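Posting this for the archive.
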Amino acid sequence: MKNFQIALIPGDGIGPEVVAEGVKVLQAIEGMDASISFSFTTFPWGCEYYLQHGKMMDDDGLEQLKPFDAIYLGAVGYPGVPDHISLRDLLIKIRKQFDQYVNLRPVTLLHSSLTPLKAKTEKDIDFLVIRENSEGEYAGAGDWLYKGMPEEVVLQTGVFSRKGTERIIRYAYEEARESNRTLTSVSKGNALNYSMVFWDEVFAEVGKEYPDVKTYSYLVDAASLYFVTNPERFEIVVTSNLFGDILTDIGAAITGGMGLATGANVNPEKTFPSMFEPVHGSAPDIAGKGIANPLAAIWSISQLMDFFEEGQWGRAILHTIKRMLEDKEQLTPDLGGKASTSEVGDQFVELLKRLTVGRE
């Protein structure tokens, strides 16, 4: 039997509510598959922890997380705690220190009724954004000079190392080759004359090793337009930290909203644990009301199972989400239903069991 050790960081707002439903799915899989078991350890870190202790996580938090196979995160952010603290001192800290340099954001339309784009179908919107996740515009490099004076100057420096740029681009080429899909690079070389020109050059250099992969290159403003007008152009997209962050929210908008947006923060070498999370945020305005949509958190479990090389379960979860979306009555209010968060989780587990009956 394979036992996977999972660190739970439910976090803030609706985070604990949706993480509970993801754990429910894992426990159901454990009950159906005798070859897999899961062990969970919960960490109370987040904004409430910050308000009590003055820090987002324990001083030795990374050492505590290091032995785990994966981290399952709910959400981070709450009124009263500045966003740059809540983000940088927990989420980005884990991403950087655990070298989770690959961010995987699927932009996949699971039901045609969910997109605001007229005449677009599931066939038209089905691609993967691979975002550089460890440096770039979010490196945190810069300075704040002459603060409070008329001469005040703020410097925010993007960091694009050859190692960091080449490895994310190579990862994307490998994914495109393995899945027989096209690869599109998104940059802004016409305006960012150092970082993005370098990015474009590395994309071309690495591409010489992959003559079988068909490639495209777009400026980020053009790519933003095409995400909305011609999403069928894209199959695999690779881009920088900031551009990937923005573009994938456009991706969420065209596939049903943030309640269906998921992301994986991956250390491909598995030297450190990878982290899986819904990316809808903490939504403090609806926290505790039992109406948060757990499907993004459950989709994160699909990504988790793929990472554990249990692809049959990853596919089964995604298929079950698609089936769930066929009946609005059993969905949360954001998708037009009347079900509660826990009811959606319960119904999901029952449907998953029915769809996998007879599986060996």
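DSSP finds eleven helices and twelve strands in the chain. The radius of gyration is 20 Å.
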